[in-house]
Amino acid sequence: MLAFVGFILLGATAFGQETDDTQKLDGTAQDQWTATLAPAKNGDSYGPLEEIVIRIPDDVPFEILLRLGLEVDAIDVTPLLAFEDQSFTYRPQQALEPGEHELRMIELTPDGEVIARGSWVLFVSGDAGIADVSPDVDPFSLSATNSVEFSQRLDDKGFSNQPARGQVSGGGYADTAYSAGRWSVTGNANYLLETQKARSSTGRRFDLGEYNFNTRFDGEDIFGQVALGHQSLDIDNYIMSNYSRRGLSASLGSADEMIAVTGFSFLPESTVGSENITGLGDSDNRLMGFQATAHPVPAWGQDFSVTGIYYNGQGSNGGFGIGGDTIVNEGDGWGVTVEHFLFERSLQLTGQYARSNFEQGDVVVGEDEAQGDAWSFAAAYTPFQSEEIGGEYLSVTIGAQYERVDTFFNSLANSSLAADRESVLLYSDINWGSVSANAQALYQTNNVDDLEELPTERLSSYQFSANYYPTIDPPAEGETDWFGQPFLNLNAGTAGNKRIKTPEAYLGTDTDNQNYSVTLGGGSSYGAWGWQLSETFSGFLDRTNQSSDSTNYMTDVSANWAVSDAVQVNSGVQWSRFKDKMFDTRTNSINLNLGLQAEIIPETLNTALNYNLNLLTGDGDTPDNTIANGEIVWTILPPTENYVGVALAFQGLVENRDGNSDKSFDGTDWQAFGLLRISAPVSY
Q1: What is the pLDDT of residues 467-489, one digit of tens each?
Q2: Total Cβ atoms within 10 A of residue 296
Q3: So where are the chain's domains?
């Protein structure tokens, strides 16, 4: 991810006020649910170690909950979340610094799309090193959420690779906390249950998922912390990314955090399961190192920092060498980051340099190909930060970044970093009342080491997005104007890749192509119902004629209606028109979705029905597909705190295929399941 993401404007400074990120990442707005941040205990600000509770709407399906994540100041803290009573709870492992902090809850969809489900700026006050604990509050807490599903396939036809007729699946999450004076201990873990080994993420029927145990001491002058298990450290640079890894870390620093040192020993990649439970058991698959941060100029305080990092380690890339032995890569590296805020923190300057050494298994390369450098310089200026102009609050950020990553730069601790690029990025964000907009331009070239045998190409990318989400005061309570609560969004972008230098005797094809896309959307909400409409035009142009030019129009219409407190209906239609210009072919597709959720007997009997129709027409006759599925659930005992919940369910699915001219594709398949669900929320 490019470093400019770290400069995204917070947009609001008051505690509890939502930022505009939800609109930026999720333009659909009204028919999408949003999470709710619970207020602080004193109503105005959070304590440094106070729990942060985020409420999820009751009708959000369980499978969606598994895709949610939480970021605090752009750091992923998802492994530290506890879930109970339809709420996520985050307990800071170290005291949050006084001031503003940004929280963002996101959903990662199966197709890789990131949807913002909530974004807030909260204010933390008080001593950053000591938690305020009332004598009336129990210093120990324990909670757990457990669920098990017994499934029996009652009937089926046509589906291949079916699992066993009877199976058991489930999982659970537990977290605990204890505090005594300046000491605090927290822990959390989840478990996975799946009797079908082929469907188990670890290959075991019952196994540990992720866990974390953390012990912290906050003294008057120093703090110390030791954490074991899955954790995301405040480390994100060329050498090491900040995603969650399993292992051990220890931190020590001054109470005011003017200086802090963290040592770590981690697995190179994220993992789940009880194998190598500590993350320290395999010397051929381990990263070790440290990071130190200092604010060396007392007069500048927290506004100037220098951070250094070093690591060395080994790790497998999943391949095999001669004789089937796993290939073990080795690497080490170091880096320095300098950050400075000026002019009352309206200007942020960041410089970063890293040096990496990497040896890929038994591959013998020259010294130049085993080493690489990466460095960048970035500046972000905020001339307006929540300034009231024209009765609306205005926030503006403009920024630029220069970045160079050598062709052979590779770090075991940051394997996803793209190497071989030199780029310049310009961007701007604006939030003014109901309007938000973002623009960016990126210019990037490859072959930065100027290797004679490689071609050099330049990527030019331009992106623009804008959202309008006005606040409409209703004419009366429970009423809306004829236009409801409207919203509009626009997204446009183009990216071109062009060859600027071709080596002599180069046998590859030339490069000169362009992608472009424009989406205009809008909609409105009327309380009980809402609608949205978007139109997208996209295309691809290859000026070398090596591949086909193409265009595509996509129309997307959806609506939702809460018929009553017990009945909700949703629908959507996508209509795509694709044209391949080289072969002069056209393909049209229509995808229709209808859904119904109904509570037949309040808190006892409910059902959900879904219908999907996928039609393909145009040049080349392709099969059509229809899927209908549904579920009815009888809650015998509703789950409550420290009491078991029991429910019976029946699920069914029918799929019909129409091969049109090719009748060999015709057919109807179905399957039906009976399920027993047991849940047990525990709290102490």
Answers
A1: 998 877 777 666 677 778 899 99
A2: 10
A3: 1-133
